[in-house]
Amino acid sequence: YTQNPQVASNYARIFYETEEQAAKAAKALNGRVVEGKRIHALHLGSALMPNYQTSVYVTSLDKGVTEEQVYDHFKQFGEIDFTNRRNCGDAAIICFKNAASAEKALACTTFPAPTEEKKDATKEVTVKKYDGPIVLRPVALKRKLKTGDEEKDQEERTKEQQSVLGKLKAYYPIFVGNVPLNCPPLELKQYFAQHGPIKFMFSPQILAYRNSAPHPVKTFIIYYMNRPSQQNAVRFFDHKFFGGHRLHVLPLRGTQNLDVKNTIKLTKIPFMSEDALFKKIKPFVGKINRIVKKSRMAAYIELEDPADVTKMMDVETADHPLPKGKMEQLKTPVSTPDRETGNRSSYSGSCSL
């Protein structure tokens, strides 16, 4: 198994009937060595919703560096769950089994870069905690760059891209989900500008998310000029209706974990939108903090009151709002889709981000 951008991709997507089967297959296959090559099997849910507490990213890698080489180098810091080079440019994501390994990996400053003249040569790299792709996804920001990029060499383009991304670090992003697919960006910008000046916005097209509702939806990342604007936007716009859709608005950056004690995981549910799920469940509980569709037939529901979790789990099948669904309370932290991390319109694949 290789991931060399210069050669034909050795990736395959395999679709199972249920999410449980897909997760089980990924767990069984990941890390297995077949004909001398390690298989990197990644459940798409892990790619879209990584555990940021155990993940880092490394930048300044050569184009020819494979996932296997990244894996071999970073395993010195602890047991690795998965590595990802797909659509990451000069970067890679390393998700460890535990947070302690991720902390140790931050000390890494070099990566093997042997040449014919010097077999033990290394290259300087930078490793940081992974809390979303603000420094990983320069390709999505191409429209912010100056014209004439085609005439620049790769080094100059990379430098300018990193400059744009560096400037965005000074601003305050939010994730806006469940936006109607045909919504004009200017209309959404005018709506969200009610709570403060907006510096920049774009739409990360997460394919699995876009197709998770009967009527296709999209997401936006909006950068505010100041923190109060960001906080007010989350406070006032979350769950508000826009274009007939209930918006889901979350702050970005940092750990956005679902509250384990207050969250229910639903699988095998009918194919419906987040709005439809909200209407189905609301009569049975108090405040719903958020509903996140993970796939067509799976979702996370975070409730305000832990008692409502117990209530939902104890509802008789005949009276349940989703009688054919499978329901379980979360036992371990799962990151919400810090949706700066999704696959965007300018690329595809399962890079999580």
Descriptive account of the structure:
The chain is an alpha+beta fold. 24% of the residues lie in helices and 23% in strands. The chain has ten helices and 18 strands. It has helices at residues 19-29, 44-48, 67-74, 99-105, 154-168, 185-192, 207-210, 227-237, 274-281, 306-314, and strands at 33-34, 37-38, 55-59, 80-84, 92-96, 110-112, 122-124, 126-129, 172-180, 198-202, 217-224, 241-242, 245-246, 248-251, 263-267, 288-295, 298-303, 326-329. Strands 4-5-3-8 form a four-stranded antiparallel sheet. The protein has a four-stranded antiparallel sheet with strand order 10-11-9-14, covered by helices on one side. The chain has a four-stranded antiparallel sheet with strand order 16-17-15-18. Strand 16 (288-295) and strand 17 form a beta hairpin. It is globular and about 70 Å long. The model is unreliable at 1-9, 133-145 and 337-353 (pLDDT under 50).
